[in-house]
Write a structure and sequence with these properties.
The chain is mainly alpha-helical and 169 residues long. Helices cover 75% and strands 8% of the residues. It has two domains: 52 residues, no CATH class; 100 residues.
């Protein structure tokens, strides 16, 4: 019976004890270990150092701090992604505007060249003119359809990022 009581007391006492940390300096380098690393090993009392610096947190406080830091980091990542997506949308708009302006100018030049040439009596030149006119108009239509598809995709991505950002709070 005494042996059982002694075992229980030893077990209870061992859970209260904290592991010791040893500090050793060897070859100009400082090493920390849970085992003595030499005759000059210095025992570091961790419980005292945390009380002095005020950095001793409960598990709940550590969890809360970790969650807060994780949220802040995710918010920063999403803010950066939103900014990039807004730039991407502006690039899509700028690209379309410049391409459309170039094609409009090309169509205007093509049509004005028809006024300078007397091709009305030449079926080959007339067909060539209308074929080129249709080709440029088809390019304008294609560029516009591509622009709308790219813009819609980019705006949907932006909306998704903003929704994720709002849901973090």
């Amino acid at each position: 019976m005494d042996f059982r009581l002694l075992s229980i007391l030893l077990l209870a006492g061992s859970s209260v004890c904290q592991a010791e940390i040893y500090k050793c300096t060897s070859g100009g380098k400082t090493v920390f270990s849970d085992q003595p690393c030499g005759e000059e090993a210095e025992i570091i009392d961790v419980s005292e150092s945390t009380k002095k610096t005020g950095t001793q947190f409960s598990n709940d406080e550590m969890q809360s701090l970790g969650n807060s830091m994780g949220k802040e980091r995710r918010q920063e990542e999403l803010d950066l992604a939103i900014s990039r997506q807004e730039r991407e949308i502006q690039n899509i708009i700028d690209s379309y505007t410049s391409t459309r302006a170039r094609l409009d100018e090309e169509l205007t030049n093509h049509r004005s060249s028809a006024d300078r040439e007397n091709w009305h009596n030449h079926p080959y030149k007339k067909d060539k003119y209308y074929k080129k006119d249709k080709q440029i108009r088809d390019q304008i239509d294609h560029v516009y359809r591509q622009y709308r598809a790219d813009r819609e995709k980019a705006y949907n991505r932006l909306a998704s990022l903003k929704k994720q950002r709002r849901n973090i709070r």
